[in-house]
Design brief:
The chain has 285 residues and is of the alpha/beta class. It has one domain: TIM Barrel. Helices cover 49% and strands 15% of the residues. It is globular, with a radius of gyration of 18 Å. It starts with a helix and ends in a 5-residue tail after the last helix. The protein binds flavin-adenine dinucleotide. The site of flavin-adenine dinucleotide (FAD) has 25 residues, from strand 3, helix 5, helix 6 and strand 6. Flavin-adenine dinucleotide (FAD) binds next to strand 3, helix 5, helix 6 and strand 6.
């Protein structure tokens, strides 16, 4: 199924994974997929890294999901370190496996940039244009409610987002903790004449140090109320319970704000993601 067709039918819910690096991590991801599949989410998305090993790991997970046929995959794909030929070869493999959705991204530059090859695409929009012209797939793009960390100004960042979303079919957001960031971005896109679906990305906090690190990298604000709420908690179960409560509340506010669906970041663990879905009455839990 294409994500744009799913969105046309009504609100979606979906989960994000990253490709595993070790046998142990692969087993963990398989368990997570097996535990979340019975909820009957609308799709799973799989992140992508530009370095050689990461590329094939993502491809293998995406192709296995497509061949399994239970939940359609969305394959993340980046500009960084890719020629047109490499993108075409990968999309050819996806087509053969029946993959119908991609997320076209600028991409994170690896810690060691010498590990990647030349890039024929600079911005996500360039990749969207190329894929649109050459492949029949549903195309998503990334949106940053609190602005992309490298953006020059609010106006230019929103204009760039509007430009690429006009060409794409839908967007998925970076995680955030305040529904107002999402509302404001949707209003700003509307003012620019863009009304395509933007799926909010929701990250349940399960580890305090990890969320602080990820927020810093992605340019997401950790609001004071969140830091205060987590500060007295040390037991991992208590932290996860608080994280699930906070994420459930945010999802409820997002649905009330008219979000076309909910995309939950799992970090390849099922418990928090499943608890949020159950709290919201999503799927067949
Ligand atoms: P772009 O749309 O290219 O934007 C990047 C910056 O350039 C922005 O500041 C924008 O304002 C500016 N810009 C855009 N177009 C132009 C232009 N024509 N001229 C001048 N400036 C311009 N990274 C990965 O490596 N792998 C993943 O799997 C992955 N998954 C992600 C999933 C989601 C939902 C999100 C939100 C991010 C993900 N990322 C991933 C991170 C993402 O690749 C980085 O944030 C990257 O730095 C920017 O990606 P983008 O697609 O938003 O880039």
């Amino acid at each position: 199924m294409r994500v744009d067709d799913l969105l046309a039918r009504g609100q979606t819910f979906s989960f994000e994974f990253f490709p595993p690096k070790t046998d142990e991590a692969r087993a963990q991801l398989n368990d997570t997929i097996n535990e979340l599949t019975p909820l009957q989410p609308n799709f799973f998305s799989v992140t992508y890294g530009a370095q050689g090993g990461e590329r094939t790991r993502t491809r293998d997970v995406v192709v296995a999901l497509a061949r399994n046929g239970s939940v359609p995959p969305v394959a993340h794909l980046t500009c960084v370190g890719h020629t047109r030929e490499e993108i075409s070869a990968l999309l050819g493999e996806y087509k053969a496996a029946g993959v119908k959705n991609i997320l076209a991204l600028g991409g994170d530059i690896p810690a060691d940039p010498t590990q990647i090859g030349p890039s024929d695409f600079r911005y996500a929009q360039d990749l969207v244009e190329y894929v649109r012209a050459n492949f029949d797939v549903c195309i998503g793009v990334a949106a940053h409610p609190e602005l992309h960390p490298r953006s020059v100004s609010r106006e230019s960042d929103r204009q760039r987002l509007a430009d690429k979303l006009r060409l794409a079919d839908f967007a998925m957001t970076q995680f955030f903790f305040d529904v107002d960031h999402y509302r404001r971005m949707i209003d700003e896109l509307s003012a620019l004449g863009v009304h395509k679906p933007v799926l909010p990305g929701v990250m349940p906090v399960t580890n305090k140090a990890q969320i602080a690190r990820m927020a810093q990298m992605s340019g997401s604000e950790l609001p004071q109320w969140l830091t205060d709420r987590l500060a007295p908690l040390e037991n991992p179960v208590d932290i996860r319970k608080a994280g699930v409560e906070i994420a459930t509340q945010l999802c409820t506010e997002l649905m009330a704000a008219g979000a076309p669906g909910l995309h939950i970041y799992t970090l390849n663990r099922s418990v928090a993601a499943r608890e949020i879905a159950v709290n919201l009455g999503l799927g067949q839990a």
